[in-house]
Design brief:
Helix content is 10%, strand content 44%. The protein is mostly beta strands. The chain has a five-stranded antiparallel sheet. A three-stranded antiparallel sheet has the order 6-5-8, with no helix packed on it. Strands 3-10 form a two-stranded antiparallel ribbon.
Length: 134
């Protein structure tokens, strides 16, 4: 058994969102994700893992090829393996609980427009050349 209080596990950083892995079970892990106002994730996917976000406090929007969905307390979003998504936090601190499960948790990034220091890794370029978006 694993038991946590998300508020006790939260860690915020004004420079980037924080994803703190709390534990692993089988082919998955569970994380507390902490976001300051306005922080944005890279536009990315997990080719071999599903990802589920549950909003505990705060909220923002999740963008996929299907459109933009509001993420608010009590709501959750499920991304099947390979679905490209980008989270943008709203005007207040946000606390999300994330579960990933699958053969490999690796993340492949398409881009990260809000991070001027980001550059694509060769593995990311190769993945999206073989798996074009859309």
């Amino acid at each position: 058994m694993h038991a946590f209080t998300l508020q006790d596990e939260q860690e915020f950083d004004p420079n980037k969102h924080v994803e703190k892995i709390l534990g692993r079970v089988g082919e998955g892990d569970f994380t507390v994700a902490c976001w300051e106002p306005g922080q944005v994730s890279p536009n990315h996917c997990h080719p071999d893992a599903a990802e589920i976000y549950f909003c505990f406090e705060g909220g923002g929007t999740m963008k996929t090829a299907e459109g933009v969905t509001e993420v608010k307390p009590g709501g959750f979003v499920v991304h099947p393996p390979g679905e490209v998504h980008e989270y943008t936090n709203g005007p207040e601190r946000t606390l999300l609980f994330r579960v990933r499960y699958g053969a490999d948790m690796v993340s492949r990034k398409v881009d990260w427009p809000t991070n001027p220091n980001w550059t694509a890794a060769p593995q990311d370029i190769e993945y999206f050349e073989k798996n074009p978006i859309g």
